Amino acid sequence: MFIFRFLLLSLMVISIQTFAIIPQNEQNVLRQTIEKKSVPLDISTTFIRAMYPVGEGEKSFNGQNNQEWEIQRESDTRFAIYGENLNNSLLSFTTHAESCIWERKDRIYRLQVNESNPNSHIGELAYITLHLPFYNSTLYLCVTPPDSNRAFHQGNTPLLKLRVTRRALPVWATILFLICLLILSGLFSGLNLGLMSLTPHDLKVIQEAGTANDQKYAKRIYPVRKHGNFLLCTILLGNVLVNSTTTILLDSLISGAMAVACATLAIVIFGEIMPQAICSRHGLKVGSQTVLLTKLFMLLTFPISYPLSKLLDTILGEEVGARYTRDQMGALLKHTTTTDIEDREKIMMTGVLSLKAKKIRGVMTNLEDVFMLEANRIVDDELVLNVYGYGYSRIPVYEGQKNNIIGLVYARDFALPDTDSGKFTVRNIMNFCKHRYGTSITPDDSSYDVFNLFKKEQYHLGVVVEYDNTSEKDPRAKAIGIVTLEDIIEEMIQEEIVDETDVFTDNRRKVRNVLSQAQDFSVFIGHNSNEAISKISAQMKVAIFQFLSTSVEPFKEKYISPNILSLLLNADLYKEYEFNEDEAKSGKTTYIYEYGKAVDYFVLIVNGNAELETGKEKIVSEIGSFYYFGASALYSPDEKIDDLIRSKSNKFRPFTPDFSLRVSETVQILRIRRVHWLAAVRATYFERKQTPNDNASLLDSSGKKVDLLAQELEKVDNVDPVNATGSIAEEQTRQRTSSLALTVASDSGVDYEKILAEQFDKSDITNSNKILSNMTINSERNTPTLTEKRRKQLFRSSTTTAATPPSLTGESPKY
After folding, report:
1. Full domain range(s) for residue 248
2. What DSSP string runs through 624-667?
């Protein structure tokens, strides 16, 4: 378009300049006239053969009508005059066609010969600069010889006549008019880009969803823009008109090649480049502000532009706005730069647009990656904890082979059945709940269609099946995976949805969720040789874990990590006290805590009841499960974790109860000594220090998981090496020394252990190798204390000093 306009303007300027150039045929006529040495009507030896304009001045030769020179009034125009005896002759002008006596003008010029060649056909040559006022008639030349007072008429040959013309407009008016034309040219060019680039559909969108100003602008433009071809014809017609007029007016001021160059530069810069650059960015606002002027030009050019627009409508049809496919719309969103839409939002929108093209095959979870339950499996603690540990809310149920999915169960369905009875199977729960799910989804189905199916049927999970056509019977559906509503939504937003209970962030690659809050209670699953531990169900251990980690300060995550705490609760720290009514009637009482007797252990009642005796009045109250005592025996709020890890805080920390807690029926308790608790604190420290950032467990050289708690417990050597298989009744029958105070050995409290060893030696206890380190307080105040192994170690170390563990920082500890 731009090249076409440039060529058109150049042709127009060149066509105008033809007025200033003598055609070739007229040059031949003039040359023949000079060569014939035509003589004027008046006989004289001084005469002019021809005159040509040279150099400066605005001049032209009118070869079509009167064949005369045309010059501008009151402007200097230089001519070359050829003739005979011209030196010092006087040149004047008359409007009479035959005589210089009548109508002679007052402007007289003296000729000075510059060149003279006797052998030349044109004779002498003189130059003269004319500056004439406007005469509304043709001027003829009159020459007065230097030796005469008579003026001789030079005839009416084409080269000896001239006319003085004047401009149609003054120079200042022409310049002002040119400026207005350039502004209109720029306006038409800008509107051509700004308005025509906005389709009526775009304007409707802006009216509904644009800013307040844009909505106002679009509302004003729309009535004009909806007549697309009419507006286009008006703009182009007006643009060509003002550009043509600009060229003509500019030629009246400047002629020649300069006029061509100036017209081209002015129209290109001020009529094309600048307005299009502005309107490409602010076309809506410019079009709104100039809509009245646009309507005016549509009215002025109506006779031409309206028929043309109707012709275009008939040939080309009505104007059609931009149309985009899904892929094109996605690419448009991807490459659109705006501060209003974030990159994350663009990704979501492109995901929604591409949903229809995505097949379920690329969205589903393959069958080998699905956690499922067998229909005939007994619902027990192990199964419930497995379901809880995986963190899935909906679990497929299969029968026989995994590709034969027959139903669905929810994780919450396992809350009510009695897991200890062994009477419930997964099939029983599935048949009772009867959860709905999709059963006829194929891998080639569109994700968009499956999403609509889920919304319509109101379920969240579907089984993806393929049909086996290999047999001669009817095709059999075979499950190859599952797809959930969450899977499809993740494809929409192009991101994994991971909540606080998800164990894996990616089911296919088994990437664990670092921030998952779902605890792994698999450590509680299985059987223990310890009778007391085996009587504590896995669900009870989970309840104990949740209670201690949330309600009892020493067991919160600040001190002990969830992983270490679960291992600690699975150790041999549970005790069962069997209540003997006969012994109770005879006055023998089994104490868990006795008033005024120092201990170093924490107790949590798991099952059963106990009697609490408090105050000087000895008020007795019955307490039950999940009452705990002795938290201050484990820690002090003033102790720092660094001090707990180092050996200087491992010394014996007695807790002297101001109450008594005695057994009133068979009761199960969790008893944790300070050394056990400190071992768990140290294990937590090393776990946090050595565990890699990817939350993977530490492995030894053989690839097995390192049990940090077991290592720390072995160091303190305070976990009972013999399983507590005997009952409390048997323990009460053992011989005890009533003079022994209730004291417990700690990892670094050697002085206390020496005292206990000496007292054992004085009392001549021969059965000390059978005494358990688990303490029991009875009414006779006989206290079992050390194992035989530990007692021998104390005697060997009675004359030595306990070694000080190295500092964690590599420095010597300061006390």
Report:
1. 171-316
2. -TT-EE-GGGT--TT--HHHHHSGGG-S---B--SEEEEESS-E
